[in-house]
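Subject: for your reference before the review

Hello V.,

The reviewers asked for a structural picture of the protein, and I figured it would be easier to keep everything in one thread rather than splitting it across files. Below is the amino acid sequence we used in the manuscript, unchanged from the supplementary table.
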Amino acid sequence: MDKIIVEGGHSLRGDVKISGAKNAALPILASALLSDGWSTYHNVPGLKDIESIRELLAHLCADVESDGNTVRINASRLCETEAPYDLVRKMRASILVLGPLLARLGKARVSLPGGCAIGARPINLHLKGLARLGASIELKHGYVEARADRLIGDDFYFDVPTVTGTENLMMAAVLAEGTTVLRNVAREPEIIALADVLNRMGADVQGAGTSVLTISGVPELKPAEVSIIPDRIEAGTFMVASALTGGDITLTDCEPDHLRAVINKLRQTGAQVETNGKTVRVKGPDEICSVDLKTLPYPGFPTDMQAQFMVLMSVANGMSVISETIFENRFIHVSELRRLGADIRISDNVAVVKGVPLLSGAPVMATDLRASASLILAGLVARRQTEISRVYHLDRGYEAIEKKFSGLGAVIERVR
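And here is what came back from the structure prediction:
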């Protein structure tokens, strides 16, 4: 099993290109199931989760071709309706094939994805929404079994905004008969990106980026050629790295408008943040100021940046309060940060972080994707070496992260 070893104390400088967004690519690749013919997707990141969704689509009889960061998919021969446990267990986002399969073939049997390290993340709202559109839903032997001769548009309210739930219902509704109105939906940029792709395919999706989606069903969709939007969480991670190390990093091929909450918080810490078109430049402050933050659905501060920002607060001047409102177990990285010398106290969903002058390198273990990134960030400012194990989490969501950090002046290597 791979490890990453980081030697701290080096200021990061230079340019880094931001990869395509995993959380946008996964539903967009799943949307290829809705049409016949070859769809082409550019700027697809080279990640384990992308490999997993490609493998699942191939299992469903879609033709899948890859060439670097371009993926081509043809679902003309779509015939399999079961997403088995052995494939779904690798990645929770596999549930995104449920809506397209039901809309296209009238039935789907998809393994329940189960829990994960950062919380249960149930799919009950996916199932309630599909039932509202006329699907019969049964849970049998760990599988969701859904059937519908033809989905019928209806009005559905999400009790809480859910990104994958919104995406699943959106993809199901585009081929439903009549009009579907989805209320209290997620507003993330990835939702807008999926809606844009569906509309290019001939769908009629209105309201993406607001809390209400109106979807007028169409008889069929056509293939499309699109480019995946930049990964705002990868971008935010490198922005925090610059502030953390007193560095000067310019991010290219990113989307500053997707990063407003992160940019605002970084400026409050004393970092200088300049935006220009598709680039963001971050200069680290001489002294990091402590700030409070609360994770919220977009456009609030993203839960996927909470662990990285906690590292920044660990060496800030003063005390900060971090409130996690999205996932119930998203402080599991705290025990590893404490091993590096961070002063963090937890009470329910609130972390109180008292800044310390310096962290100290130690062996640590990654617990999930964003926690893995936070441990690398901590290693960048820790004395001596930090050895991070279980870094397979990183490969699910960060494309060649150690190479990108190395190109900025970090002393970092992967040991196989």
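For the response letter, the relevant points are probably these. Residues 232-244 form the longest helix (13 residues). The chain has two domains: 3-19+230-415, 22-227.

Happy to draft the paragraph if you're swamped.

O.
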